[in-house]
């Protein structure tokens, strides 16, 4: 039995009558009901992988998953890295929880979030940021091209990949969001770049994004690809993907892009890069993301290539793609400490508030329904 919410539809679905998908796809099912799902991104922003701050950061990461400090640890977690717009190295701890109370306890007691809460923005020689995405289950949708490996939220216990047919047409992602049956998920205001960059360096900021902001993590996994399939990914599909991401960054004002990061997955023990990446994107609304997917040549190139290769290789396909989408209710607040002003949602935040490390607000990087 699946516990995904199901509402009587009052908003028309996007699925065309009689639609049959061109390729099989799977979505995430849950074995028990739950109130909120959480993905928690806590990152170090520094000069490079050899920066002196990396070692202490990793020590706190590992402490969060062992002994007494690991009591409320994420049910699934990853290490990722990327170079941002300013050339800074970002090392990211990503955790997933099905239990929002366990996550709240982790924020209050675990070494990594406590370290972040106590940073003195005016004194540290590095930056750090904390973005928590926490939503009811009816504001989550997922899709996987292969059910045999658990990615992202799917790595949590008590979940499973289920075959589906709500895929293969524009608007399918919206239709997979249970809340879309009763809510058009519209924005409360326009997409607008802030008139002046946030004065973020040397300060601790809380930045808010607007109602119904859409957050997508879209993954690519080719760790097991060899020969022809490996060459196809690196020489054909990956360049098309990067062209699409470059467009979404460069046309951010027109496309509704708030933030876009292409992250590489790391081996948790050796820190070696894996043949796995994921794009973490924040968009003004789901409609912004849909507009690019439905109408821009860069997405058409990615989509048609993936469909063609799935047809060619079938179950022997060793390149796996997937995504998870969260639509944020009301307001979410993200925290940035001594970061450069292009970090995360800072260029488009609906509000930015400076806080002190001992301010109670500094201990709450995200507020659900706040």
Automatic annotation (TrEMBL):
**GO molecular function annotation:** lyase activity; metal ion binding
Superkingdom of the source species: Bacteria
Q: Cite the residue spans of the region called Disordered.
A: 1-23
* Swiss-Prot/TrEMBL cofactor(s): heme b
A Pfam family it matches: Dehydratase_hem
**Which keywords annotate this record?**
Heme, Iron, Lyase, Metal-binding
Q: Which species expresses this protein natively?
A: Streptomyces odorifer
Q: What is this protein called?
A: Phenylacetaldoxime dehydratase family protein
Which family, according to UniProt? Belongs to the heme-containing dehydratase family.
């Amino acid at each position: 039995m699946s516990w995904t919410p199901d509402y009587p539809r009052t908003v028309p679905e996007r699925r065309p009558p009689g639609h049959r998908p061109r390729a099989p796809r799977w979505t995430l099912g849950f074995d028990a009901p739950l109130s909120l799902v959480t993905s928690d991104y806590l990152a170090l922003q520094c000069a490079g992988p050899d920066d002196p701050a990396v070692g202490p950061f990793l020590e706190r990461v590992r402490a969060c998953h062992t002994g007494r400090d690991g009591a409320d640890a994420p049910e699934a977690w990853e290490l990722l890295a990327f170079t941002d717009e300013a050339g800074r190295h970002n090392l990211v701890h990503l955790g997933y929880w099905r239990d929002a109370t366990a996550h709240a306890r982790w924020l209050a007691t675990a070494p990594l979030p406590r370290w972040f809460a106590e940073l003195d923005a005016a004194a540290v020689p590095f930056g750090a940021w904390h973005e928590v995405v926490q939503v009811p289950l009816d504001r989550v949708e997922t899709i996987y091209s292969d059910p045999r490996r658990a990615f992202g939220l799917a790595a949590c216990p008590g979940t499973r990949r289920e075959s589906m047919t709500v895929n293969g047409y524009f608007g399918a992602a919206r239709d997979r969001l249970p809340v879309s049956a009763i809510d058009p998920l519209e924005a409360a205001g326009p997409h607008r770049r802030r008139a002046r960059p946030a004065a973020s360096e040397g300060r601790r900021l809380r930045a808010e994004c607007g109602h119904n902001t859409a957050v997508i993590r879209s993954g690519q996994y080719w760790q097991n690809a060899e020969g022809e399939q490996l060459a196809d990914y690196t020489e054909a599909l990956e360049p098309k993907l990067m062209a699409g991401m470059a467009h979404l960054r460069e046309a951010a004002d027109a496309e509704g892009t708030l933030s876009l990061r292409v992250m590489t997955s790391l081996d948790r023990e050796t820190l070696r890069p894996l043949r796995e990446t994921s794009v973490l994107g924040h968009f003004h609304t789901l409609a912004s993301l849909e507009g690019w997917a439905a109408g821009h040549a860069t997405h058409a190139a990615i989509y048609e290539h993936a469909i063609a290769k799935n047809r060619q290789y079938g179950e022997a396909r060793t390149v796996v793609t997937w995504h998870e989408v969260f639509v944020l209710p009301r307001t979410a607040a993200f925290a940035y400490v001594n970061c450069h002003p292009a970090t995360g949602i800072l260029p488009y935040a609906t509000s930015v508030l400076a806080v002190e490390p001992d301010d109670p607000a500094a201990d709450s990087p995200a507020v659900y329904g706040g």
